[in-house]
Amino acid sequence: MGLIYEILQELNSGSFSYKGFKVGLLGLPKFKIYSQNTLSGSLDYMCKKGLLEYGNDKINITHKGKEYVKRKYDSLKQFNCKFDKNAPRNLIVMFDIPETRKAEREWLRWHLKKFNYLMIQKSVWVGPSPLPREFLEYVESIGIKDGLKTFKLAKGYMFKK
Fold first, then answer.
1. CB-based burial of residue 101 (10 Å sphere; 0-12 exposed, 13-18 middle, 19+ buried)?
2. Could you tell me the end-to-end alpha-carbon distance of the chain, in angstroms, rounded to an integer?
3. Angle 117-122-126 from CA coordinates, rounded to 5°
4. pLDDT digits over 17-52, tens only?
5. E strand residue ranges, 44-134
6. Which of 78, 87, 81, 96 shows the shortest CA–CA distance to 126?
7. Which of 37, 82, 92, 110 is most buried, by CB atoms within 10 Å?
């Protein structure tokens, strides 16, 4: 994932605290081996972005930081492919998801590939229909449904190689 996600995840987990830092059961930090400068710079960056705050001789995760962790955790949600590789490609999926939601955009592309969709352009895909209901409900729950449009084709799309 990344250092910022790991730090926020540890602070959000409610582990033990020693001298202002959250530690595991044995009192050891759970971070990978990072230099002091890397950790210090990352903590300062997260404070500037409003993900962390210093207070009472310790570092606390903010509401914005908890939302960041939740969004990252949710981005790992996976759905199974129920489509046969030879199923007719009769649904066009188009999306316009802002650059600020890059993780969600990449997650969507990854799932479309998994559902045996073919890319016509970076944000235009064609594949079998219908998309799984649970998938569409999840897309709505993470707030990208408004940027997603589907069009049913009268005839299956023939992909030219």
1. middle
2. 35
3. 25
4. 666 665 654 455 655 567 778 888 888 899 999 999
5. 52-55, 58-61, 91-95, 118-121, 124-127
6. 87
7. 92
Question: Prior bond to 130 cis, omega within 30?
Answer: yes
Evaluate whether 15 touches 23 at the Cβ level (below 8 Å): yes
pLDDT > 90: percent of the chain:
30
Instruction: Give Rg (Cα) of the chain.
Output: 21
Residues 52 and 31: their CA atoms lie apart, in Å, by 17
* Architecture (CATH level 2) of domain 91-152: 2-Layer Sandwich (3.30)
| pLDDT at 127 (0 to 100) | 92
Residues pairing with 113 in the sheet:
none
pTM of this prediction?
Answer: 0.56
| Class of CATH domain 3-74 | mainly alpha
* Whole-number average pLDDT of the chain: 82
Domain residue ranges in the chain? 3-74, 91-152
